Amino acid sequence: MSKLYSLYETLKKENQKTIYLFKSGIFYIALSNDAIYLSNKFNFKLTNFNNSIVKCGFPISSSEKYIKIFKNNNINFKIIDSSVNTIYSPKEFELNNNILNLIDSISSTDPDKLSVYEAYEFISFLKEKCLELKKLYNI
């Protein structure tokens, strides 16, 4: 049995009502009964995880779309990144993604190529994004 499925079974024993999505390469996947549930509810295509277990999933790049769908349908779910042994609630996952987007924005900006005006605008943009995150996540 795989480590991922063992973790799935352990988590399901703790909370049967939560759907667990595992980061696997460039996808988030659901296993076994969680996969069947998502397939029935949202028409995800089921594939084999192994000879006896099914899976379904979606690309990480589409995570915002599916998280919104799950939240709108009151799906209780958690995202597991087993590579770093972290389980994210939807709110923590969104915060993490927003912070990563902010970091990408900062790291992709070349300050040597900004005019004084553009630098001021960039700092204002960063301030607004930070204030939005603080308000949205009560931090």
Number of strands: 6
Low-pLDDT stretches: none
Helix content percent band: 40-55%
Please report which band the strand proportion falls in: under 5%, 5-15%, 15-25%, 25-35%, 35-45% or over 45%: 15-25%
Structural class computed from helices and strand pairing: alpha+beta
Rg computed from alpha carbons, rounded to a whole number of angstroms: 19 Å
Query: How is the main sheet built?
Result: 6 strands, mixed
How many DSSP H or I helices?
5
How would you classify the quaternary structure? single chain
Mean pLDDT: 88
From the N-terminal CA to the C-terminal CA, the straight-line distance is 41 Å
Strand order of the largest sheet: 3-4-2-1-5-6
Name the shape in a single word: elongated
Taken in chain order, the helices and strands follow as HEEHEEHEEHH
